[in-house]
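Need tokens for this chain, all 183 residues.
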Amino acid sequence: MRSSRKLESSTPSKRAKRLAVSVLCLGAAAALSVGVSYADVDLFGKVDAWATSKGQAAVAGLQSSLQTETEKQKAELQQRLSDKLQSEEKALAEFAEQQKAAARQALQAHVDELVAGKTFVTDADRQQIADKLNQIVQSAESAMDRLGDSYAPPVLTYEAPAAAAEPSTVGEAVYGEAGEPRP
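Here are the structure tokens for all 183 residues:
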């Protein structure tokens, strides 16, 4: 019987089972050694690096969107200011024309009043005074027209104010550059 047991143990199915168990044990040992090598990796360092990169990407995205929105609002504000300046310029031109017309009427009324209040010996004297007064009125009207031409509208650009320099030390913040206490 002994010999039959030896024969049974060396049958191909038992060898296959032993081989399978051996391969399984070797695979488990390899997996454990790989697990140990992964345990040596700095997990907190990897998580920290990942969080830092994601944070930097988020900050960069926010800065980009903030700059885009700022540029959009800046362009909109410039357009609104330009429109407002153009409408104000038009209103100023209309006002100037009204003032010129009122001044011309006032000048003509004053001329008529001067001529009517004066007594003239002859019509030639009356004509001479009227001609001189008309020359004065024409000179005044010409001066008013030149005054409108000399007007320069405001510049349509905006310059941001310069940022105040921050003190670099506590001493500068408290005492200033001269070394005297600030009020």
